[in-house]
Amino acid sequence: MDRNSSIFYKMTGENENSTTELLCNILRVKYLRDIVLQYIGIPSKMLEEISQSNITTQAYDENTGILDIQIASLNCFYIIENKIRTNTVLQESQKSKYIEKIDKSGKVHRGLIFMIPEGYNEKEEIERLKKELDSQGKNYIIIKAWREFLEYLDKIEIGKDSPVIKESLDYLNDIILTPPVDYTLTIQEINIFYNPKNIYCSLSLLHKYFGLIDENEEYLMKQLGKDFDHSDWQKDFETVNKKGKNIRYKDRVCIFYGFNFNLLEAIDDNKNKYIFSICFELAQLKENPKIGEKYTFMKDENWLYIKTDISNIINDHTGKEYFNELIDIIKNVFLINLKKTE
Description:
With 342 residues, the protein is α+β, with helices and mostly antiparallel strands. It has 10 helices and 11 strands. Helix content is 34%, strand content 21%.
């Protein structure tokens, strides 16, 4: 997306959270709310009951995790799960825990609504789950396609009523309906990453890596839990110190993953191996952290470096294998070795 495409350029992240919030902002206006809610399958007789205050986003539940959108009123309980990328994983909790929560609500009108993109990889799994629940008399699951939904809104011309609504719909169209970029790295590009003599050539390739982070940061945060949050980017090409992303743990920046060009020393092959790694601030860890034999690591005065396997993103354009490796390291190195605080 560029500045000419939308007034939301650089004001929001191009991810599921942003599209979820933007959709809910549209629902502030009652007649638009009625149009959208009726389209996604909520009975028309319930529209008067549901107000903006009944709709919440990104609500955390210790049993189910983070709910994209929850609609809870006197007689209604709905969960809306928003997917905008074809390769986004459908979590187990979104199939089982969500249904349990809907069951426990006891509301007359209840359901689990999936908003999915064209060609969504997990559509068959959602359809299988729907068929299973339907056979039990639990007609909870509603599947709606983003493309058909946006085309419907365009057909009834709701964007004519407000320039902000029009820009919002243009943004959703641009983010959801634009084919995703393939960030798969070639073998030659990987070799450039690992060759110190050509390391600066790799700067021209890092946009692919940044793209993978943008695609997967929401997935990473959901897997790690509420104590973690993404912090600032380190991708300013005017410096060559670090290129990647910081992570906060309980509001403290103490994890970095990506490329550490400050380790680039031609005479020290050992350090060169850790250019692509995940790093943990030693001040946050036990004095002698237990790493085990599973990981290759080194330490300096302030940081613990765990070498990550960039080959995980050679053939996997989704980046999931690489990010699952990060999740594994954070859970089995960082969380286990956290320094106890009173």
